[in-house]
Amino acid sequence: MITLRNFVGQNKNINIVEEKGIFTVFEHKKDLGISPNAAQTTYFMQEMGVRQRQVLVRLENNAIRLNPGAMQMMSGSIKQTSGIQSAGDLLGKAIKSKMTGDSVVKPVYAGTGILITEPTFNHLLIEDVGSWGGMVCDDGMFICCDDEIKDKAVMRSNFSSAIAGGEGLFNLCLEGQGFAVIKSPCPREELYEVILENDCFKIDGNHAICWSDDLQFTVERAGSSIMGSAASGEGLVNVYRGTGKILVAPLR
């Protein structure tokens, strides 16, 4: 039997940021173990909300998939497997990894107990994947998800998206029912949620954190002509068309 004390819900230095499903995102208000030389820098970091965050997963006879190397500690009756079904499955995952830049293997942790991820200074979002239909993530943003959620590589609408859009030719798409935890450069209260209904949204720069798989993503001139784009000073912009939603980090 393991008793965990001075933890989430008991430690005054730990703040719960978000809870959905079996996932809890928490942050450490202060780093109390710093050296005197780093005290001034750390103080201003903490005042600006630059804090270390982790994910607590409570498993009850179910399973999650985790980004490799993201597990810090766990307890209970939890078994870890590679998540690879066969040699063909390994080959498919390797190809998908090459395309998206994500890891080849996302280990599966199954059973009953608790799991805690490694700390990160990134903000962490818990997203209901089912509400997106299919959720396309920006490169390298994935942390973990319910094992029922499937992932695939999706190709951008055209090569201009890869060359000029800064998103890569392929991205990771999550689909199914359940929750996923992804990284974000800013907190949820700072994100814009853009809902499109048979319309388009243009972004100057790589500010989209994730977007619906149903949206068509292209890169186009800001104006209707080369002269118009040059006059506006905007050049090329990322364009999302169709029906769906986008999470946008305006200060990224």
Secondary-structure blueprint:
Blueprint: E1 14-20, E2 23-28, H1 39-47, E3 53-66, E4 71-81, H2 87-100, E5 108-117, E6 123-128, E7 134-137, E8 142-146, E9 150-155, H3 159-164, E10 170-175, E11 179-184, E12 192-203, E13 208-212, E14 216-221, H4 226-232, E15 236-248
Would you give an account of this structure?
With 252 residues, this protein is mostly beta strands. The protein has a domain of 151 residues: 4-Layer Sandwich (Double-stranded beta-helix). Helices cover 14% and strands 46% of the residues. Strands 1, 2, 3, 4, 5, 6, 8 and 11 form an eight-stranded antiparallel β-sheet that branches. 29% of the residues are buried.
CATH superfamily of the domain at 14-30 and 52-185: Mitochondrial biogenesis AIM24
- The topology string of helices and strands comes to EEHEEHEEEEEHEEEEEHE
Helix content: 10-25%
Roughly how many Å is the radius of gyration? 20 Å
Overall 3D form: globular
Main sheet makeup: 8 strands, antiparallel
Query: Could you say which structural class the secondary elements and strand pairing correspond to?
Result: mainly beta
**Count the strands?**
15
What fold name stands as the CATH topology of the domain at 14-30 and 52-185? Double-stranded beta-helix
Global mean pLDDT: 85
Contiguous runs where pLDDT drops below 50 for at least 5 residues: 85-101, 227-232
- Beta-strand level of the residues, as a percent range? over 45%
CATH architecture of the domain at 14-30 and 52-185: 4-Layer Sandwich
Contiguous helical run count: 4
The top level CATH class name of the domain at 14-30 and 52-185: Alpha Beta
- Separation of the first and last Cα atoms: 45 Å
